[in-house]
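Lab manual, section 2.4: Encoding a predicted structure.

Procedure: take the sequence of the chain (670 residues), apply the prediction step described in section 2.3, and record the output as structure tokens. A sample record is shown.
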Amino acid sequence: MFDTLLIANRGEIACRVAATARRLGIRTVAVYSDADANARHVAACDVAVHIGGPEPRASYLRADAILQAARDTGAQAIHPGYGFLSENEAFAQAATDAGIAFVGPPASAIAAMGSKSAAKSLMEKAGVPLVPGYHGDNQDPQFLKTQADAIGYPVLIKASAGGGGKGMRVVESSGAFLDALASCQREAASSFGDDRVLIERYLQKPRHIEIQVFADTQGNCVYLFERDCSVQRRHQKVIEEAPAPGMTEERRRAMGEAAVAAARAVGYVGAGTVEFIAEPDGRFYFMEMNTRLQVEHPVTEMITGHDLVEWQLRVAAGQPLPARQEDLRIEGHAIEARIYAENPEKGFLPSIGTLAYLGLPAHTAFANGDIRVDGGVRMGDTITPFYDPMIAKLIVRGADRDQARARMLQALAQTQAVGVQTNVAFLSRLMRDSAFAAADLDTGLIERQRDTLLPAPRPAGADALALASAAVLARQGLAQPGAAAQASADPWDARDGWRLGGQYRRELQWVDNGETRRVAIARHGKDWTLDAGDGPQPLLWRAQANAGGAFALRVTLGGHESAGTVALHADRAYVFTDAGSHALELYDPLAHSQDTQGEHGGGLTAPMPGKIISIAVKAGDTVEKGQPLLVMEAMKMEHTISAPADGKVAEVFYAIGDQVTEGAELVAIE
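Recorded output:
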């Protein structure tokens, strides 16, 4: 086994690899960019080496800097994680040429499977069923459009070297093809340095099922069963589970053996994932092979009991696979949810900011348990525009799918973040969704269930208002009703709201989704009341201060008890309960007395930090509602800004190539 391992990645996966390496007694080396100098993965490793600026191309995509860091630190092996250089055959070959073990397949296998079009041609020759489409080298736009017209719409354009939903578009009609192609190619070039695409028939109600394969240098190859990754948004996975609901032993064996055959066809070594798309009748088609460890590998670890990173390291060190096919068993059911800093109500746009508070359920970290959290950020860390905005992966297991789903709901209720928008509430609704509960899964589930998964915000109830108000009192140091008497006999030391005459009264104005909610709190003698609009009711509370300005609270209002966590940050109270969460702004009339309306009421603002990559209008142009105005790029994804109504462009405030901050005014329309 290796003495020293360099981890050529960041965030959650770097921490994950470091955890297994530490358990095996392997010294670890982290690499980091300017933006990650204080990142969690840097602290998780024994040694850290700075490799460049915050942009991936200036750091984590710099093969030369990473290889030099390996030489300088005496690393005998490099683990690439996923993303960045993990599927770059030139990097894998350069590491091998330098005498450093690449923890992954040989460069030849990466090259064979790294191009979606080349891989499909290889699978076609091997007799693996493929979705009808064009996977050739001719990339002329008009030729590709002709191919799409012949296939029949809808079609799916996919970056040939892509992954993670980048460089991918569904096209519904011939007239929309060329614009979608151009956007795909720009995104593919930005993310992968390769703008080639392939075109496939877009299947209706398909399931995305992938097989985990593993091969060693002795010629052994096994499959560690399947994962269902059908629940997606924007072609990116949201929920993954294993085993796949409804999978028969016969189909599992057929898909597993097909995946092993695909791996053997390219002389594969290490961990790989063969992805299939399956129709409702059970027919399945080869999609691609990811020549690396997958984000969702923990669900396989949960049902098999094997540490796949340990397998990777042992195979890379020349050891045989730790288990044979007949030794592998499925036990229970596991579900993984990706906790992202994003806003589901705004098209899942990334949310940038500092994690002022982060609360997680009791869990194991990077190791199997009923509730497991694999995370790459900590409270106080910043989610930047440079990298994927994942906060953590929440993985649960149960004896069966129903128990796993119930455990996931419980864990999500205890996952709390302040400082950025998150998808936690969305994930909770998804777990409760009738189609998901019944395992009626396909890649269009989220879009089909939008009305229930993305409902209009609900107003905060009296219990949420009471919890927020009690947190404000606790922050002021007011004693809890019924608390033990303080040691001091001096009445001026009391923090129970005592006033001369025995009365204390305060009115709080909470802004809840634009509506002002008034709460009156009063103390008469030793008794407290709270009036949230239905008249004064007796109030009792207990508060325990936690890190990050949060309080664990239990409030009794009018005989009804509620419990939750309230994080106070700036002028907001973030209320988390089992029933959901609410963000309430504490309105200060004096602070808002000088508020005036902005100058550009008809302007369009940036929904997130990013770079302007295309502008379709200029001052004086007449535009129609829905017309594309400009395109922004953030986190390697393109976002089109469209006109909210008919009008005339008064001014365009930025040029192509400009970086903009969230909220910056982009275009003024009159």
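Check your result against the sample. The mean pLDDT is 90.
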